[in-house]
Design brief:
Elements (H helix, E strand, L loop, with lengths): L6 E9 L2 E10 L4 E6 L8 H11 L3 E11 L7 E3 L1 H16 L9 H6 L4 E3 L9 H70 L6 H15 L2 H18 L6 H21 L3 H21 L4
Parallel strand pairs: 3-4
Antiparallel strand pairs: 1-2, 2-4, 5-6
Helix pairs in contact: 1-4, 4-6, 4-8, 6-7, 7-8
Length: 294
């Protein structure tokens, strides 16, 4: 099933007296780029967490972090590092004696000082860390499943948009194929008129005929239209296949854009030029949508 590269997931689980909360956010990226933050004491789980996410996703930047919150039960509280507090007060007194300070440090300043006030985690049994580590990975798998569902939902919507855009591109190509014979006839008629102007002027007829053929070939866009139709068919085939298809579709969009540019450069007719502008507009919209797919 097609996936977008954008999505969000949040999953919570209670393990003993600890609430485990995972949050995952995914955005576009050329490759799979994982940025996982784990709590202190659980850094060894990083490799296992990355391996787990690679089972679900092939592309995108995925940022994730887990929060561990002790449940408020008996024995919960806060502790103050009295050594740090004493050192801070001594520094403040020293600054005041040197004329560099006014008044006492505010309570807000003290509360924000790193390591001064710490959450007591005595509610978590010392032997429970291994169980919590296992629960962190289990919870991550649940969150990854939610993120996968989120990306797949958006991927389905993107594919519907892509199918609609491909229909519009195909419609422009059909219109072009319909008017191309008329445009060719008009060009040939104009060339005949110009040829009549040179009649009797001592112009080499063979050379002039060669130049006319060269000019008509240079203006012929049938080959570009055929290649555009082939690329459209290939994109439909890729959309119906399995696996990550974003890169292949992006390459096909580049090919569509190149053929559309060549078509516009050859166009010598106002109606062809208008169709060329429509064509390039739809191809650009295709490219923008394709870059969201995994």
């Amino acid at each position: 099933m097609r996936q977008s590269m954008t999505g969000f997931a949040r999953f919570e689980r209670l393990e003993g007296d600890v609430q485990i909360v995972w949050q995952l956010k995914s955005v576009n990226h050329r490759f799979l780029d994982l940025a996982i933050r784990l709590p202190d004491g659980y850094a060894e789980l990083e490799i296992a967490a990355a391996t787990l996410l690679r089972k679900y996703f092939a592309r995108g930047r995925i940022e994730g972090h887990v929060l561990l919150s002790p449940v408020l039960r008996q024995g919960f509280g806060w502790s103050v590092d009295e050594q740090v507090l004493g050192a801070l007060l001594q520094v403040e007194e020293r600054l005041q004696s040197l004329g560099g300070g006014r008044g006492r440090m505010s309570m807000e300043c003290l509360m924000r000082w790193p390591g001064l006030v710490c959450e007591q985690r005595g509610v978590v049994a010392q032997g429970a860390q291994e169980a919590i580590g296992s629960a962190i990975l289990d919870t991550l798998e649940e969150a990854a499943g939610q993120l996968l569902a989120s990306r797949q939902g958006e991927g389905r919507n993107i594919c519907l948009v892509l199918e609609s855009l491909l229909d519009q591109v195909a419609g422009v190509l059909v219109r072009l194929k319909g008017i191309l014979p008329t445009v060719r006839g008009q060009h040939q008629e104009r060339l005949r008129e110009r040829l009549a102007e040179f009649a009797g002027a001592g112009v080499d007829e063979d050379r002039l005929g060669q130049e006319i053929v060269f000019f008509l070939n240079r203006m012929d866009v049938a080959e570009e239209l055929d290649r555009l139709m082939i690329h459209i068919g290939e994109m439909r085939s890729v959309l119906s296949s399995s696996g990550a298809v974003g890169r292949r579709l992006d390459f096909l969009c580049q090919e569509l854009n190149r053929e559309a540019n060549t078509f516009c450069s050859k166009s010598q007719d106002s109606e062809l030029s208008r169709c060329g502008v429509d064509l390039k507009t739809f191809v650009e919209q295709l490219r923008e949508q394709v870059q969201n797919l995994e």
